Amino acid sequence: MIRSISVAICMVVVVGVSVSGAFGETYQITDMETLAKLLGETAMPGDVLEIQPGTYYAISSKIKVMRSGTPELPIIIRGVMKDGKRPVIDASRANIN
Can you tell me the distance from the alpha carbon of 26 to that of 5, in angstroms, rounded to the nearest whole number? Predict the structure, then answer.
């Protein structure tokens, strides 16, 4: 009886460690350069990119997305609203040629 309880406790600890390590990082985005770097080079499955309120000016007509998540661990990009303000990505300064 004591042996089966010990095995059950060990399994719970191992499962708990595996699940907690499966989630990605949460990044607070405050500039376009950071967003572009994360999407192009750094983001990993399970990461959450939270774009903070403000206006972000795109200098290019495209943002290269070279990173991808998985069905179980997508890369999530979401805007954060604070004090009634939302993030805005403004491409009016981008050269379209």
Answer: 36
Side-chain-side CA neighbours of 70 within 13 Å: the count stands at 8
Q: Which residues have a Cβ under 8 Å from the Cβ of 44 and sit 6 or more positions away?
A: 24, 25, 67, 75
* Structure token pair of residue 64: 């290269």
Which residues, including other chains, have CB under 8 Å from residue 5's CB and lie 6 or more apart?
Answer: none
Q: Give the span between the Cα atoms of 51 and 45, in whole angstroms.
A: 17
What digits encode the pLDDT tens for the residues 44-68? 999 999 999 999 998 887 888 999 9
What is the C-alpha to C-alpha distance for residues 28 and 40, in angstroms, rounded to an integer?
A: 16
Which residue type is seen at 55?
Answer: T
Other CB atoms within a 10 A radius of the CB of residue 44 amount to 13
Residue 61's contacts (CB-CB under 8 Å, 6 or more residues apart) are 91, 94, 95, 96
